[in-house]
Amino acid sequence: MRKEIRDRLNKMSDADYVKFSASLIPASGRGTMLGVRLPALRDYAKELSKGDWRQELSYEEDLYFEETMLRGMILGYACRDIEELFACLKDFIPRVQNWSVCDSVCSGLKLVEKYPEKTWDFLQPYLKSGEEFPCRVGLIMLLNHFVKLGEDKKKITRKRSVTMADLQGQEETGDYLEPILQALDREFTEGYYAQMAAAWLLAELFVTYPVRTLRGLRELHLDAFTRKKAVQKIRESRIPDKEVKAYLREMYPGR
Q1: Which of 22, 77, 158, 212 is within CB 3.0–4.6 Å of 171 for a Cys-Cys bond?
Q2: What do you get for the CA distance between the two ends of the chain, in Å?
Q3: Helix, strand, or coil here: 32?
Q4: 171 and 211 in contact (C-beta within 8 Å)?
Q5: Do the beta carbons of residue 69 and residue 33 sit within 8 Å?
Q6: pLDDT tens-digit profile of 187-224?
Q7: Which one, of 152, 149, 154, 126, lies nearest residue 205 by Cα?
């Protein structure tokens, strides 16, 4: 990105936040960090999105972690055309080399929720890419923008609680529930961050569609690590009650 943007990011840097952020993100995937806090980055991305944002994104080289994050955040604020967003994402996704950029940017891409069918098709090559972070991008996009699409694309919410009585009820349905489970029906060999994204996605499915997801936990052809982490994340949630957590511990000892 251009020098003016880098100068502005340097002015927003926080040495203490660098230490905190660096402790959470592996050095090999983050590059040089300035320590700009996420709310400040979002505000700056929103500001840039009101100007000639396409020109800003035309600068190919990113020197700092925050530049890559900013690049992705601008897309969430600026893009109003879904095909243009997809074209920009094709350039952006190969730049994603850590979970922080992936998750922060994906959560802000709200435009895709107006075009679920097109977005679903767009994500398929990334879900099947065999590469760790493109795969994580696909999975986190499903988590953020597809899990809560119920029948007829009506938004639903996660359960307030999940009890053993709930688990005896009818299996839930949703426009994208079965396709998401099909996308999860494999071993995730791409790497740790793809596995953890798949586990997180399953945990979110469980607190939204507990009966169907419980069957999925039994039937999906997951690798052992991803299944273990999915059960662990479900048990760490405040939504399943103690009996449900005990039941899962009995079903999957050691998780």
Answers
A1: 212
A2: 45
A3: strand
A4: yes
A5: no
A6: 999 999 999 999 999 999 999 999 999 999 999 999 99
A7: 149
Q: How far apart are CA 211 and CA 253, in angstroms?
A: 20
Tens digit of each residue's pLDDT (9 = 90 or more) over 73-109? 999 999 999 999 999 999 999 999 999 999 999 999 9
Report d(CA 137, CA 106) in Å as an integer: 7
Distance, in Å, from the CA atom of 188 to the CA atom of 194, rounded to the nearest integer, reads: 7
Which band of pLDDT confidence, cut at 50, 70 and 90, is reported for residue 1?
low
pLDDT confidence bin for 255, thresholds 50/70/90: low
Annotate 118-170 with DSSP letters as a single string: HHHHHHHHHHTS--HHHHHHHHHHHHHHTTTB-GGG-B----S-B-HHHHTSP
Map tokens 């995730």 to a residue.
188
Alpha carbon distance 54, 8 (integer Å): 19
Distance (Å, rounded) from C-alpha 173 to C-alpha 99? 30
Q: What are phi and psi of 149, to 5 degrees?
A: -90, 105
Q: Indicate the pTM of the whole model.
A: 0.94
Q: What is the DSSP letter of 94?
A: G
Q: How far is CA 176 from CA 142, 181, 197, in A?
A: 9, 9, 17
Helices (H), 23-131: 38-49, 53-57, 65-78, 82-92, 99-107, 116-127
Q: What are 155's strand-pairing partners? A: 149
Report the distance separating Cα 189 and Cα 197, nearest Å.
12
Among 43, 22, 20, 41, which residue's Cα sits nearest to residue 31?
22
Per the listing, tokens 């009996």 go with 243
Q: Which residues are bridge partners to 162 per DSSP?
A: 240
